[in-house]
């Protein structure tokens, strides 16, 4: 919604940059809040669950975070919290999140800008880019599927 509104208000490029920066800032704030406030409480009760999460995301943190951010499904807030509670490298996580957010923000800013201008090509391009992003996300997911589900082939 933020990217759509930013695209409507500021145009495609400025809207994309503003929305991506806002999403990355929210990611960092949530990550560090979890790291410095929630971590001790969560580790006391759920250290085994945190270990599972760490085992997945500690290796290839940048690539895996980028792939997760490209997927148009999931809960970004929960991922930020879990990463902050876990022993995940903040720099890799936040920078991969920023880059991973960028394509989605561009798609929605393009749609918002297209609505403002009633530009059917921009709305159509946004829809095509959404499909391309989903296909690329699926391809990357299949590449790392064994990391997500080690007991399956």
Account of the protein in words:
The protein has 153 residues and is an all-alpha fold. The protein has one domain. It has seven helices and no strands. It has helices spanning 2-10, 12-57, 61-70, 76-85, 90-117, 120-143, 145-148. Helix 1 crosses helix 5. It is globular and about 55 Å long. The relative contact order is 0.17. The mean pLDDT is 83.
Entry keywords:
153 residues, transmembrane helix, transmembrane
Task: Produce a short descriptive summary.
The protein has 153 residues and is mainly α. The protein has helices spanning 2-10, 12-57, 61-70, 76-85, 90-117, 120-143, 145-148. Helix 1 packs antiparallel against helix 2.
Large-scale geometry: globular
Quote the beta fraction: under 5%
Task: Evaluate the radius of gyration.
Answer: 17 Å
| Poorly predicted tracts of residues | none
Give helix % range: over 70%
The pLDDT mean sits at: 83
Number of helices: 7
How far apart the termini lie comes to: 37 Å
Number of domains: 1
Main β-sheet description: none
N-to-C order of helices and strands: HHHHHHH
Structural class of the secondary elements? mainly alpha
Q: How many strand units? A: 0
């Amino acid at each position: 919604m933020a990217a759509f509104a930013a695209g409507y208000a500021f145009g495609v490029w400025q809207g994309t940059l503003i929305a991506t920066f806002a999403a990355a800032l929210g990611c960092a704030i949530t990550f560090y809040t979890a790291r410095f406030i929630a971590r001790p409480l969560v580790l006391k009760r759920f250290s085994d669950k945190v270990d599972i999460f760490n085992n997945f995301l500690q290796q290839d943190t940048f690539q895996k975070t980028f792939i997760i951010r490209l997927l148009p499904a999931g809960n970004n807030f929960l991922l930020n919290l879990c990463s902050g509670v876990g022993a995940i490298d903040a720099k890799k996580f936040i920078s991969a999140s920023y880059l991973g957010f960028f394509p989605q923000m561009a798609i929605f800013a393009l749609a918002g800008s297209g609505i403002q201008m009633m530009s059917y090509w921009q709305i159509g391009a946004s829809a095509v880019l959404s499909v391309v992003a989903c296909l690329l996300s699926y391809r990357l997911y299949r590449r790392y599927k064994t990391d997500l589900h080690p007991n399956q082939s």
